[in-house]
Inverse folding.
């Protein structure tokens, strides 16, 4: 004989509303709990997402290719040829969305009022734009107009420290391949503002050919930055690039280039789950309480059902189903509430009052919460799985009641 | 063929320091299709015997056979199965599931038995009409009088086509008119469908309906007489 | 009154399971809150201590615009003498003068831009933990020697080790060309990639010679024994330097604004989480107390018929809730403080925490810190939430009609 689902589900549903006040309070509690789970997760997701994006913008790219020794010794000596052959072919096909070859060397920039250690980036502006690695905002002057541009674009903060401005000359010094100090006067043509103030101090942009010329390295470059515009899904294509790059080059995904960013993602994902479980545990006491009381009030009825021939399994199923209805309703309402509260916030929450603190962990001045289906699914799974587990005890007790004692209860 | 047989049933309860012998070496045979009344004062063991016959309660010793099946050899689920398909219970009160309407209460057991929806519906309507509740199908138990509730319980028992109905003081909370109606229903079912009835009562009017009257006292059978049944005067 | 409390206590145990579940919810939340708040405050303390002890110190005296603009000419005259005066004034030894300059450092094979810091070898180890992070060689000794210690990554990039020579080029305080050759005597490994990549320290005396600083420095760094002594030291120093308008006395919050903000933003997130937990527990109590009032409608009807006022009945419900909440508070405090006390000694870790903590110059283990705040704030919030939650059930009693109530099954 089949399990009489229809009979039991009607019963479970109606029983749920017998004490509507209690059910409504519990429903409200589950709704608030589920909402908090998803809301918190979307805030954290937004934070992590932005940290990673900012990190990838400064890195830049999700995958980088260097000469084997470059990362240990980021000198102009360890440069490589511009990509060609199999590697170039790989870089021009999906899933690679964009790539850029760049010269990246340590340098000192000096004005008549001061000097600073910086990282000099020789770039092709068009390729960098496709990569998404150019600074967000130009506050003065113009952008670089091509790899041959002989001007410099520097950060607003650096400009202030050097007391320089658009149109003024500065001296840029770096080491050439013979370890002589190569130095050249250059005009500041643009000043940018970055999301992270640290980047403004550190990166100086120049035309790639102009830098190659300064360092005397011909067409050689320091790194190739590659993006597929999906940082969570890099692993499948890294080996293919690596195979095409050959043994002389090192191909690394961002998780290895910046281990802090990589571990961030893991910690935040783990934390979201821990938070959900903790919220659920706080809820579970109320849930179990509700079911215990529901069984307590219906002991006589359960005895009657047993006398009528309901097997223990059906009684267990009935209580579990009652709990499931409650959980599903709470989940539906909680998800709905999360949807209507998070969606309007997705355009950004201003957190500039704590901007420098956020910068310490790699965040910008605006927090963009992200509502992920995965988080909604995760909270649903946590609530259903743990909810049913918690309901097992009272449901089991109900199914094991002694029918004679149950029937005699007044 | 013997429908029910009990051999040497014993059951004791402990209440504080006192030991109560609810069943004290009871042996009994009840033939299929009989209409039996168990009488005796409260505490004489009537209810314990009924519960034991329905497999709700297990005696400390002795054995019960219902329709050829030894109850002590069945698991909880098998006992439930037996009650579902062969035994109907009617209690003194609170016989119905409060959240279900009269019709749903009748249909519920059939649903658990796995009867198809269409068949269930027409059968439920028919049995409710048979017990005189055709206009009250959609009422919840709280909206029915005590007698009406007991009749719904009987309708439910009929619908599940049991071979045996165990009724524990079914008329205790009813006025004479309702009690007579209920007993008439029992008799009809007994004579027309051959359903075996075992009814516990201490109402002399109910005893009159029985073809066999068993008296109990202190857990023992003190008298077992066959008699000519007669309806109660209203 | 004694009888009322006894009645309330007995009523509480009419449904043992329900009462325990409700108390359980409170205890669970209390333990969790004690642990989380202790951990939070503990890690803030560690973040502040770790970050400040590394290099910044608690207080710095600088030329008033140096913090913002960091021009070499924005310097503090007589920095070494000032440091000595501060030492006497505050009665602490951990005061050191520094000067800073950017320069291009070149080894035989490589050149990199570095941040050179001129330090007082005798006092620098007292204000900063960096000198203690020596991996190779030794720290600076002589205030005028032509010696330098550099970060590990920088050493690797420059391909130098102890004994090798390093040339640096920059510009002096007056804008003149500045150059020097120093012998590497030690390699520092702080574990912070950004610091290890660019840090270089040399004796202040010689630094001033090379960069034409005269007797000037850029900062006087002060480390006080404990964080709560910062306020006192600050006002003392400000009074002492009242006449020298060109100088500013800056506290750690001004020097590292990110630190407090990181804490503030973290707290905002944490309060949200705690709030959710407290609300959920309050729902639990609301549910229990409402049930307990509803199921006693008949009983309350009888009591009202006997002459009890609704106020007395509400008081009874209030007392029951109070007992329930006190029980949750007591058990939660006990459990929470035991757990947290244990962890505050044993410490614990969580995958990935190490990388995150490095940003604040901390080790990989977390140690919660027990204080009155961390012990009481969570449980008291739960306590208050529980009492608030009982308001609705108690207020319902005022709407009770005795006759109708007695008729309820």
């Amino acid at each position: 004989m089949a399990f009489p689902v229809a009979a039991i589900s009607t019963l479970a549903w109606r029983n749920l509303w017998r004490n509507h006040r209690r059910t409504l309070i519990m429903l409200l509690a589950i709704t608030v709990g589920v909402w908090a789970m998803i809301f918190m997760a979307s805030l954290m997701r937004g934070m992590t997402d932005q940290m990673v994006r900012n990190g990838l913008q400064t890195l830049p790219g999700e995958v980088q290719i260097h000469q084997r020794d470059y990362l240990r010794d980021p000198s102009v000596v360890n440069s490589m040829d511009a990509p060609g052959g199999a590697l170039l072919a790989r870089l021009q096909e999906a899933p690679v969305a964009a790539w850029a070859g760049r010269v990246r060397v340590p340098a000192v920039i000096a004005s008549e009022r001061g000097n600073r250690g910086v990282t000099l980036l020789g770039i092709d502006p068009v390729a960098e734009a496709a990569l998404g690695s150019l600074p967000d905002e130009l506050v003065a002057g113009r952008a670089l107009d091509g790899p041959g541009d002989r001007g410099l674009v520097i950060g607003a903060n650096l400009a202030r420290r050097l007391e320089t401005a658009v149109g003024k000359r500065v001296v840029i010094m770096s080491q050439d391949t013979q370890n002589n100090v190569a130095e050249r006067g250059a005009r500041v043509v643009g000043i940018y503002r970055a999301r992270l103030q640290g980047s403004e101090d550190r990166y100086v942009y120049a035309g790639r050919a102009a830098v190659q010329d300064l360092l005397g390295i011909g067409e050689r470059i320091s790194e190739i930055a590659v993006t597929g515009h999906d940082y969570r899904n890099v692993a499948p294509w890294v080996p293919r690039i690596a195979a095409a790059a050959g043994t002389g080059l090192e191909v690394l995904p961002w998780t290895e280039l910046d281990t802090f960013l990589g571990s961030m993602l893991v910690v935040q994902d783990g934390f979201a789950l821990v938070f959900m479980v903790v919220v659920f545990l706080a809820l579970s006491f109320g849930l179990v309480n509700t079911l215990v009381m529901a069984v307590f009030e219906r002991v006589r009825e359960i005895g009657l059902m047993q006398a009528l021939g309901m097997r223990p399994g059906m009684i267990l199923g009935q209580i579990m189903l009652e709990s499931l209805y409650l959980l599903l309703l709470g989940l539906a309402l909680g998800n709905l509430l999360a949807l209507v509260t998070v969606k309007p916030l997705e355009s950004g929450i201003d957190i500039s009052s704590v901007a420098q603190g956020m910068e310490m962990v790699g965040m910008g001045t605006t927090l963009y919460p992200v509502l992920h289906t995965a988080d909604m699914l995760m909270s649903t799974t946590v609530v259903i799985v743990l909810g049913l587990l918690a309901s097992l005890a009272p449901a089991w007790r109900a199914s094991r009641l002694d029918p004679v004692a149950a029937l005699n209860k007044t | 063929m013997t429908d029910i047989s009990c051999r040497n049933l014993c059951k004791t309860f402990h209440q504080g320091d006192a030991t109560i012998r609810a069943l004290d070496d009871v042996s009994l045979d009840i033939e299929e299709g009989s209409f039996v009344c168990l009488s005796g004062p409260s505490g004489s063991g009537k209810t314990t015997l009924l519960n034991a016959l329905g497999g709700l309660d297990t005696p400390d010793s002795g054995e019960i056979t219902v329709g050829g099946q030894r109850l002590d050899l069945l698991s909880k689920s098998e006992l439930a199965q037996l009650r579902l398909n062969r035994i109907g219970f009617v209690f003194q009160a609170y016989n119905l599931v409060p959240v279900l309407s009269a019709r749903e209460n009748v249909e519920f057991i059939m649903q658990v038995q796995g009867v198809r929806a269409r068949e269930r519906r027409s059968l439920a309507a028919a049995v409710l009409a048979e017990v005189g509740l055709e206009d009250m199908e959609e009422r919840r138990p709280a909206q029915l009088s005590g007698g009406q509730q007991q009749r719904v319980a009987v309708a439910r028992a009929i619908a599940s086509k049991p071979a045996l109905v165990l009724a524990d003081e079914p008329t205790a909370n009813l006025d004479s008119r309702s009690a007579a109606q209920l007993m008439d229903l029992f008799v009809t079912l007994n004579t027309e469908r051959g359903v075996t009835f075992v009814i516990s009562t201490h109402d002399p009017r109910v005893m009159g309906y029985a073809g066999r009257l068993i008296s109990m006292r202190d857990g023992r059978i003190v008298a077992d007489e066959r008699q000519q049944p007669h309806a109660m005067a209203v | 009154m004694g009888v009322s409390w006894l009645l309330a206590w007995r009523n509480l145990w009419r449904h043992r399971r329900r009462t325990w579940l409700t108390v359980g919810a409170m205890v669970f939340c209390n333990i969790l809150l004690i642990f989380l708040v202790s951990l939070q405050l503990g890690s803030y303390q560690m973040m502040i201590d770790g970050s400040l002890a590394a290099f910044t110190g608690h207080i710095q005296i600088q030329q008033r615009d140096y913090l913002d603009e960091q021009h070499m000419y924005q310097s503090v005259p007589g920095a070494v003498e000032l440091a000595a005066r501060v030492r006497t004034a505050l009665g602490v030894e951990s005061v050191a003068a520094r000067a800073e300059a950017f320069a291009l450092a070149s080894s035989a094979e490589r050149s990199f831009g570095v941040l050179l810091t001129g330090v007082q070898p005798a006092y620098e180890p007292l204000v900063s933990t960096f000198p203690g992070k020596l991996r190779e060689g030794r720290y600076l000794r002589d205030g005028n020697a032509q010696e330098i210690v550099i970060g590990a990554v920088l050493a690797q990039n420059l391909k130098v080790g102890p004994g090798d020579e390093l040339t640096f080029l920059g510009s002096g305080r007056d804008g003149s060309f500045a150059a020097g050759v120093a012998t590497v005597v030690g390699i520092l490994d702080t574990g912070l990639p950004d610091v290890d990549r660019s840090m270089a320290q040399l004796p202040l005396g010689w630094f001033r010679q090379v960069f034409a600083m005269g007797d000037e420095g850029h900062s006087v760094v002060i480390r006080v024994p404990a964080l709560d002594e910062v306020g006192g030291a600050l006002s003392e120093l400000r009074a002492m330097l009242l006449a020298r308008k060109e100088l500013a006395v800056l506290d750690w919050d001004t020097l590292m604004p990110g630190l407090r903000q990181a804490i503030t933003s973290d707290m905002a997130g944490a309060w949200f989480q705690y709030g959710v937990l407290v609300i959920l527990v309050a729902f639990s109590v609301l549910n229990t107390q409402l049930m307990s009032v509803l199921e006693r409608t008949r009983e309350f009807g009888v009591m009202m018929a006997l002459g009890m006022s609704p106020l007395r009945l509400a008081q009874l419900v209030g007392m029951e809730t109070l007992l329930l909440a006190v029980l949750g508070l007591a058990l939660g405090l006990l459990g929470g403080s035991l757990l947290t006390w244990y962890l505050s000694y044993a410490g614990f870790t969580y995958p990935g925490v190490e990388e995150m903590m490095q940003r604040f110059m901390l080790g990989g283990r977390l140690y919660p810190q027990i204080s009155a705040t961390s012990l009481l704030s969570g449980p008291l919030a739960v306590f208050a939430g529980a009492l608030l939650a009982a308001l609705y059930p108690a207020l319902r009693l005022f709407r009770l009609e005795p006759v109708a109530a007695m008729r309820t099954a």
Remarks:
- The mean pLDDT of chain B is 87.
